[in-house]
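Many introductory courses stop at the sequence. We go one step further.
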Amino acid sequence: MIKKIIIAILIALPLSVAAQVKIGVIDLQTLVTETPEFAEAQKTLQASQEKYQADLKSLQEEAQRAFDEYNKLKEDATTPAGMLERREQNLQEMSQKIQQTAQTYDQRLQQQEQELMAPIVDKVQKAAQAVGQEKGLTCILPTGALIYMSTDVVDVNPLVKAKLAK
């Protein structure tokens, strides 16, 4: 008899524990992009990108002028070979400078984006944590990582959005 009771308890225990688990889901990317701070961050990034593009365009125009001058000198039979070699070397250096500058600007934009987005993501995560605690959720998972989602799962997006609006 005692064995039957122990077996019944062991069978019922996982079911009672599973009934206590409450899972929430969140679309973090959507919530982040809907914040006012995100729009400001995008404006800042766009301004930086436009500045960097203008700088690159200026460098490219300068290189194009140097290339045009080189072609004119190359067509002139009286141009010394040493002068053409120096101009070729100058063109190569300008090309390398443009490539390095473009890489530097890309890195700066990525770093700036990370710096601007980190507090926004943190704010959304803290709001989600608060909602999870208020609603007694065991965990909140990102919707993009789910393969299957039952109707028992709590969609916390509206709750987090409301918390962010406060």
